[in-house]
Amino acid sequence: MSGKGSDYTRRSFISTAATGLVSAGLVNFTPGKVFAQETETPEGTKEKKLIYRTIGRTGLKVPIVSMGVMNSNNPEIVQASYEEGIRHFDTAAYYQFGRNEQMVGSVINKLKVRDKVVIGTKNFIPQQRRGLTPEQSKTKLIEACEASLSRLGTDYVDIMYIHDVRDAETVADQGIIEGLKTLKQQGKVRSTGLATHAAMADVINAAVSGGFYDVVLTAINFTMADDAGLLEAIKNAAANGVGIVAMKALAGGARWPNPQSRRDYTSSTIATAALKWVLRNESISTSIPGYTNYEHMREDFSVAYNLEYTEQEKKLLSDNNIKLSMGYCRQCNKCLATCPDGVDVPTLMRVHMYAAQYANFKIARGTLDGIPARSSINVCRDCLECGAQCANTVDIARRIDELKAMYC
Ligand code: SF4
Ligand code: SF4
Predict the structure, then answer these.
(1) Euclidean distance between the first and final Cα of the chain, in Å?
(2) Where among 264, 282, 313 does a domain terminate?
(3) Which residue, among 362, 373, 368, has the nearest Cα to 349 in the 3D structure?
(4) Residue 7: is its pLDDT beyond 80?
(5) In degrees to the nearest 10, what's the CA dihedral of 33, 82, 162, 284?
(6) Number of domains in the chain
(7) Which of 98, 245, 319, 333 has CA 20 to 30 A from 161's CA?
(8) Nearest to 256 by CA among 270, 244, 243, 246
(9) Residue 2, Cβ neighbours under 10 Å: how many?
(10) Cβ contact 292:74 at 8 Å
(11) Ligand at shortest distance from the CA of 334
(12) Other CB atoms closer than 10 Å to residue 209's CB: what's the count?
């Protein structure tokens, strides 16, 4: 699984004067480019061609659509994904308390395709790394990563991410870096990474300036088209050899963000438009949509053959109602200061996404349990101060109500 450069052909170009598309966020980074999805065979017939990209300096070359395994507990979906052409599987020690890694490992080993796939996993969530000395960090990280290898049934992982990184200090943590260096020297970890869904630009910029990490797995989707700092950080990372893998590409995973959308679009349009928006950015190597059924697997993977927008997809990405009703929480933390009781609203919004949109109640519960009691949902007294504070159209008050109904 190695190679350099992009594997697709750019066959034609459109006008760069697509000002309307740029303002709608339809054209990001590569204005004017059309992405090829077919090649001519010598016999003159057309054949679909997968688009591959290389993940930064890792040399790992994968189709632009990979599988985020987090929400699936069905090994048959993992196997079907491999058979469909997916070659990169993203999991974590934290998902299903290790069973997600076990499932990925058992499928890959059953198929005997370990050398044909890229496995990325994540370790050392904030609760595990809090309050440790550098020496303790190093030791505990090595133990945690070795436990992942054991669950995956493999001698090495291709990408080992530090899970849920939210600041530059963690990126520079010498205990963690020393632990990963040891694992690399032992051949147990091929590439190192950071997974981030808050303060992403800071984390990416710190990864580039620090020079140690090979990959950043970052949240990015079309509802964040106005986040110039993040887009610049992604571009700069790619230019410096740090691979960028996209998560949350479907803006929280809602294929039907509102009742009207069911009338105006198909589920496929929402998913493919969102994925294409992310992947038309050539600084992003691949994405890890977290589908859980065959229909969504095929919808998502169809994008790996074709990045050209359909007319419906263009319409959807220009539709402000869709963007508003996605209500994607980009974990900007701006609402944190508005709560007089210090409730950790951003993390609660993530809990809501896991429960209401992913239907992944284990991750939701685990994330909720990770919030210190003094800033968790029981402290909230429904003053509604935070309700109007989100500039990104997240209906905070309603989501807190729903969380209370579920967890209080
Ligand atoms: S709810 Fe809004 S303000 Fe709060 S973190 Fe999310 S996007 Fe930012
Ligand atoms: S409604 Fe709850 S979370 Fe929001 S500001 Fe009031 S106490 Fe804080």
Answers:
(1) 48
(2) 313
(3) 368
(4) no
(5) 0
(6) 2
(7) 333
(8) 270
(9) 9
(10) yes
(11) 1
(12) 12
What confidence tens digit (pLDDT) does each residue in 241-253 have?
A: 999 999 999 987 6
- Could you tell me if 114 and 204 lie in one domain? yes
Residue 376, in any domain of the structure: yes
308 lines ligand 2 (CB under 6 A): no
Evaluated on CA atoms 332, 269, 256, 403, the torsion sign reads: negative
152 close to ligand 2 (CB < 6 Angstrom) = no
Is residue 5 one of the residues assigned to a domain? no
Nearest ligand to the C-alpha atom of residue 381: 2
Q: What's the residue count for the chain?
A: 408
The pTM (predicted TM-score) of the whole model is: 0.86
**Does residue 51 form part of some domain?**
yes
d(Cα 129, Cα 126) in Å, to the nearest integer? 5
Closest ligand to Cα 351: 1
Q: Domain span at residue 174?
A: 19-313
**Whole-number pLDDT of residue 42:** 57
135 lines ligand 2 (CB under 6 A): no
Residues 153/106, Cβ–Cβ less than 8 Å:
yes
Q: Is the CB of 381 under 6 A from ligand 2?
A: yes
Bridge partners of 238, per DSSP, are: none
For the chain, give the percent of residues with pLDDT over 90: 63
CB of 386 within 6 A of ligand 2: the answer is yes
Instruction: Report the alpha-carbon distance of residue 377 to residue 184 in Å, rounded.
Output: 40
pLDDT tens, position by position, 31-61: 334 455 555 555 666 567 999 999 999 999 9
Please give the structure tokens belonging to residue 68: 């985020």
